[in-house]
């Protein structure tokens, strides 16, 4: 079966997560970073679609929002997975996830994932570094990627009927 992972990576963390996820998914996997590639997709070419992004200043990337709006109705007809890369944990992470993805898409998803995140201060611009320092007190690179959550997400996806 063929899966498409659509994501947006600002500093490389989401791209790293997509690489790990791809290695754990069954079948053929194509991944597209909306920040790098501007192509019109034909979702009919794929059996399943996974969408992921990261949180910056409390919001998911604009390109992910636009993708969700553009393909909304088609996504409701697909085997769907949604994930979020963020440094927040617990209820705040769930709140950010729910704010990032429309309720009907969340309900239609076979797998939902919160994969942790990273502060890559070394890759941030001056403004981003100042915000992260002021809001979170972070001045050096930090990683909290949740490998188990990624593997669990892939396992749920791999057990779908289309992959059996």
Question: How would you portray this structure in words?
Answer:
Residues 3-158 form the Flavodoxin-like domain. Helices cover 40% and strands 24% of the residues. The chain has 164 residues and is of the alpha/beta class. The chain has a single domain (2-163), classed as Rossmann fold (3-Layer(aba) Sandwich). The strands form two sheets. Strands 1, 2, 3, 4, 5 and 6 form a six-stranded mixed sheet that branches. The protein has a two-stranded antiparallel sheet with strand order 7-8. Helix 1 packs across helix 7. The chain is globular. The protein starts with a strand and ends in a 6-residue tail after the last helix. The model has no long low-confidence stretch (mean pLDDT 87).
Count up the domains.
1
- By DSSP, the count of extended strands is 8
For the termini, the CA-CA separation is 9 Å
- Rg over C-alpha atoms, rounded to the nearest angstrom: 15 Å
> How much helix, percentage-wise, in residues?
25-40%
- Helix-strand string: EHEEEHHEHHEEHEH
Specify the overall morphology. globular
CATH topology-level name: Rossmann fold
Beta-strand fraction estimate: 15-25%
Instruction: Label the CATH architecture.
Output: 3-Layer(aba) Sandwich
Question: What kind of sheet is the major sheet?
Answer: 6 strands, mixed
Uncertain regions spanning at least 5 consecutive residues: none
CATH class: Alpha Beta
* Broad structural category: alpha/beta
CATH superfamily placement: Flavodoxin domain
In DSSP terms (H or I, runs of 4 or more residues), the helix count works out at 7
Mean pLDDT reading: 87
């Amino acid at each position: 079966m063929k899966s498409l992972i659509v994501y947006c990576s600002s500093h490389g963390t989401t791209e790293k997560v997509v690489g790990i996820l791809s290695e754990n998914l069954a079948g053929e996997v194509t991944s597209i970073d909306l920040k790098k590639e501007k192509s019109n997709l034909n979702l009919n070419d794929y059996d399943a679609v996974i969408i992921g992004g990261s949180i910056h200043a409390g919001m998911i990337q604009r390109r992910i929002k636009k993708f969700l709006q553009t393909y909304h109705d088609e996504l409701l007809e697909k085997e769907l997975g949604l994930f979020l890369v963020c440094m927040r944990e617990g209820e705040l992470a769930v709140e950010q996830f729910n704010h990032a993805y429309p309720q009907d898409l969340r309900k239609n998803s076979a797998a939902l994932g919160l994969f942790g995140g990273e502060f890559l201060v070394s890759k941030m611009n001056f403004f981003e570094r100042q915000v992260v320092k002021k809001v979170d007190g972070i001045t050096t690179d930090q990683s909290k990627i949740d490998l188990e959550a990624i593997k669990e997400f892939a396992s749920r996806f791999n057990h779908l009927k289309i992959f059996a």
